[in-house]
TrEMBL record:
Protein name as it appears in the record: Bet v I/Major latex protein domain-containing protein
Ranges for domain Bet v I/Major latex protein: 2-113
InterPro entries noted in UniProt: Bet_v_I/MLP, MLP-like, START-like_dom_sf
Pfam families on file: Bet_v_1
Gene designation per UniProt: A01p054710.1_BraROA
Source organism of the structure: Brassica rapa subsp. trilocularis
């Protein structure tokens, strides 16, 4: 049985939105070094690691079991948005659609506190 629904949250980040966007766009291959106890490896199958349309797989541990998640990446530099679309793997056994959308919104006078 597939689960359905949408989850939306905002996470305040210190620093410029552009800086965080560039890190998530270009440097997420370092996750295995930072949290190697969960994410074991990230492999790029098509395209460059930070390019629109690239396809990559993540090898990770879930409940002590080795799993794989394959994604297609959509990059929108103008709107500081990254979309990770699930293609296959452990997550897709539970969900029909798995899209993770990261949008980095610059602070304005109204949003800074």
């Amino acid at each position: 049985m597939a689960t359905s629904g949408t989850y939306v949250t905002e996470v305040p980040l210190k620093g410029a939105a552009e800086k965080h966007y560039k890190k998530w766009k270009s440097e997420n291959h370092i996750f295995p070094d930072a949290i190697g106890h969960h994410i074991k490896n990230v492999t790029v199958h098509e395209g460059e690691s930070d390019s629109h349309g690239s396809i990559r797989s993540w090898n990770y541990t879930w409940d002590g079991k080795e799993e794989v998640f394959k994604e297609k990446r959509e990059v929108d530099d103008e709107n500081l948005t990254l979309v990770l679309r699930g293609l296959e793997g452990h997550v897709m056994e539970q969900l029909k659609v798995f899209d993770v959308i990261y949008q980095f919104i610059p602070k304005t006078e109204d949003t800074s506190s």
